[in-house]
Design goal:
The structure is a single chain. The chain is 37% helix and 16% strand. The protein contains 9 helices and 8 strands. The protein has an 8-stranded mixed beta sheet, sandwiched between helices. It is globular.
Length: 301
């Protein structure tokens, strides 16, 4: 059963933090960093699988997300991405105070994968980085997206949903799904998981223009010429479904892999799951994914 507490964001807002301690002697700590338009409670089953393998698990719900959000899909008035990174670090500090002396792994999914990739450029002392459902974005796309977000902000819409960017981001995601039943079938082949997401009022909302702009700021931190800041000794695991539109059906994930390889990361693993969609932790073969993840972790503790 998760322990739920409230912590304070660097912005002053309250955030929910969940901690799933394992029984007995722990091998390490895994911090979960969730994706866009969802919340940390969705990772309960994954946390329990990690607990069973001997890992304490901790994670928080981002600014602008979950039941404590003041504005859905809005990080902060200023430097929103920096606030997200700082909050992620605050959770790490809390976890290491609770469970000192253990190896520390950071796991980010989707937007959370961008967060942890940025985090690893600033903090070189991680024991492992796990990147789930990530994507690769070229400069022209980020430039255009930033301009759209900025223009809406100029006209007083910074804290309002950005319908244009939402459409550009999500409209084509079901394209490779045969006979989709919902707008979010691209998330998983497991219909029950898709239905639960669609029915959750804390999932699937539109991001505001300001938050899109903040996220684009973060993605610009991940250009290849900036990756030299990362510790080359940190083990990195990337995994995704090969039918995940965020990762361009594996093409974008491979690009991220190649860029990390070129940056000199020595222990680098890539797994693409055949037929898998965006949320491998909620996929029909999720037990295989959990096993692969814990095997990778065990080899590095």
């Amino acid at each position: 059963m998760a322990q739920e507490i409230t912590i304070r964001s660097v912005t002053g807002q309250e955030l929910e933090l969940l901690c799933w301690p394992c029984e007995g002697q722990a091998k390490g700590i895994v911090q979960l960093v969730h994706g866009m338009a969802e919340h940390i409670h969705r990772y309960e089953d994954t946390a329990k699988a990690l607990n069973a393998a001997g890992y304490h698990v901790v994670g928080h719900t981002h600014l602008g997300h979950g039941k404590l959000a003041k504005i859905q899909g809005y990080f902060a008035d200023q430097d929103g991405w920096e606030a997200v990174l700082a909050d992620t670090h605050s959770v790490r500090v809390w976890a290491q105070e609770q469970f000192p002396g253990l190896k520390y792994f950071l796991l980010g999914h989707s937007m959370g994968s961008f967060v942890v990739r940025c985090y690893a450029l600033r903090h070189r002392d991680l024991d492992g980085l796990i990147i789930s459902g990530t994507g690769h974005f070229e400069k022209p796309i980020l430039t255009a997206g930033g301009m759209i977000a900025g223009l809406q902000g100029l006209f007083g819409g910074a804290a309002k949903p950005c319908k244009l960017l939402h459409t550009m981001n999500f409209a084509a995601n079901n394209k490779s799904v045969e006979n989709p039943k919902t707008e979010c079938d691209w998330l998983s082949r497991d219909e029950a998981q898709v239905a639960a997401y669609a029915a959750d009022p804390l999932c699937g909302f539109m991001f505001t223009a300001k938050a899109y702009g903040d996220m684009f700021d973060g993605l610009r931190m991940l250009y290849p010429d900036k990756l030299s800041a990362m510790n080359q000794e940190v083990p990195v695991l990337l995994f995704s479904g090969d039918q995940d539109p965020v990762g361009k059906n594996g093409v974008g994930v491979r690009k991220v892999y190649e860029e990390l390889k070129a940056a000199g990361i020595k222990d680098l693993t890539l797994t693409l799951y055949t037929g898998g969609r965006h949320e491998m932790f909620n996929e029909t073969n999720r037990e295989e994914v959990w096993t692969d993840l814990t095997t990778w972790l065990d080899a590095r503790v």
